[in-house]
Amino acid sequence: MSFRIKLVISYIAMIIFPIILSAIVINALIYSSAKKVCKIYNFKMNSNPVTLVRFIVDMHVDSFSEVSNTITNNPESLKDVKYIKNIDKDLKNNNSGIVVIINNSIIYTSDIIKKLGIDAKNIKNTEVKVNNRDILENQWLIKHENFSFGGNNGVVYLITDTKPIVSIVKGLIVSSFLSILIILILTDGVLTFLVSRSILVPINELKKSSIKIKEGDLDFNVNVYNKDELGELCIAFEEMRFKLKESVDVKLQYENNRKELISNISHDLKTPVTAVKGYIEGIMDGVADTPEKMEKYTKTIYSKANAMDKLIDELFLFSKLDLNKLTFNFEKINLINYLKDCTEELKFDLEKNGIDLVFIIDIDEDEDIIALVDRERLKRVIINLVDNAVKYMDKENGIIIIILKASDNNALVEIRDNGRGISKESLPFIFDRFYRTDFSRNSSTGGSGLGLAIAKKIIEEHGGNIMAESELNEGTAIIFTLKRFKQI
Ligand code: ADP
């Protein structure tokens, strides 16, 4: 959810939640206050609690009806205190009381009126007012009626105590106000906490991550907590960390390669140079005192110089390939014809060493196999692979087979020999630069360790792959693929 939508929703929730919660709480408070009022005035709550005050006024007026009847039909009975006490009993249930005055002398005053501290003689002849403000201000309701009988004049007051309502209403107002305040603090507090947490957590994560990067630590992951703008920022930050780590690793790898290259070059050049120096010193010291010895010495110097020349050539080629500075001239070639020519060319020299070179076309379809190839570079690959097969040949009747296979999209060239093979431990590393098995490192046949690394780079430039299969003492097969060129 986007950050903007999140903020809008939280603002709306900050308004709606307190309103709904306040309405529920205030309703509950009104209900419980109304219940209290009902208990005090002894009547059932069967209507909206808000109209209760009106009910009390009605009740007050109703309770006067019995007194009114007496005044109309039998006013003398108002002289009888016993009779009035009976009426008072009922009135007491409704939190009301009665005052009867005949000829200015008080005949009866209810206890409830005494408790209210109303001076029965000085009750103002106020009529009942039915608005709530009067109830709240006066704290009681008064209704009166004059009567006369046999020359006597009297007045009856009916008074209802409304003090409890006032305190209940006051309590209701205070508790409603407090509830609204608590609801506002809680809902807005919780929502603000949730929104600010969704901002602060990713910001803290980004802060921690940038400190780590500043300190050079790139081995961690930036956690993504939300799918909002800050989440997107965390994803971008993680991508940046990943790219940075990649480039640092590549730099480190280059640095290690460079160091390894320098140490390998110095080592591989040092050996023939020392040998050449030794032979020349021998000549200068007159050790080669016969023409045969002289010929042997010069031939050795020549072969060492040749080995150095070859090594420098390979190094030069490899470093050009490594820096992507070698240009390739790709052209469409027919692989069957090309490999046939290569076999013919190499066959002659190999036969002199007693090794047979065979070319097999292992293709079902009767079709030319065309690929986009740089003739010179591919030749270099084939020469390197055949050279290796010769170098590591340990059988009397050595045989090297070049096999051409094809799939729908690829041509597959396999150069298989029956030489000494490669151990399982060495096999995964033979395409690494300067890698030589222990055997070739100690033997005179061992080359620079660049032959297969060069072949791999050239094949990869052609968009193909190179791999090896080998069985110790059985032989080795180096297989490479080339993308087939198909006319559409
Ligand atoms: P080198 O110049 O030492 O031959 P390469 O890169 O051409 O270097 O080969 C790497 C190593 O792989 C060699 O030192 C050798 O031990 C092993 N190797 C390559 N080709 C063959 C093969 N046809 N038979 C046996 N071992 C091989």
Structure report:
The chain has four domains: about 5-40 and about 170-205, no CATH class; about 50-160; about 215-265, no CATH class; about 330-485, Heat Shock Protein 90 (2-Layer Sandwich). It is rod-shaped, with a radius of gyration of 56 Å. It is α+β, with helices and mostly antiparallel strands. The relative contact order is 0.06. A hairpin with a 3-residue loop joins strand 8 and strand 9 (about 410-415). The protein has a five-stranded mixed β-sheet. The protein has a four-stranded antiparallel β-sheet with strand order 2-1-4-3. It has helices spanning about 5-40, 50-75, 80-95, 110-115, 130-140, 165-215, 230-285, 290-320, 335-350, 375-390, 440, 450-460, and strands at about 95-100, 105-110, 140-150, 150-160, 330-335, 355-360, 370-375, 400-405, 410-415, 465-470, 475-485. It binds adenosine-5'-diphosphate (ADP). Adenosine-5'-diphosphate binds near residues 388, 419, 420, 440 and 447.
| Domain unit count | 4
Class based on secondary structure composition and strand pairing? alpha+beta
Distance between the termini: 49 Å
Q: Flag low-confidence runs.
A: 126-133
Radius of gyration: 56 Å
Strands, total number: 11
Keywords:
488 residues; alpha+beta; 4 domains; five-stranded mixed beta sheet; four-stranded antiparallel beta sheet; binds adenosine-5'-diphosphate
Describe the SSE topology:
Blueprint: H1 3-41, H2 52-73, H3 81-93, E1 96-102, E2 105-109, H4 111-116, H5 132-138, E3 140-149, E4 152-161, H6 163-214, H7 229-284, H8 291-322, E5 331-334, H9 335-352, E6 356-361, E7 370-373, H10 375-391, E8 399-406, E9 410-417, H11 438-442, H12 451-461, E10 466-471, E11 475-483
Parallel strand pairs: 6-8
Antiparallel strand pairs: 1-2, 1-4, 3-4, 5-7, 8-9, 9-11, 10-11
Helix pairs in contact: 1-6, 6-7, 7-8, 8-12, 10-12
This protein binds adenosine-5'-diphosphate.
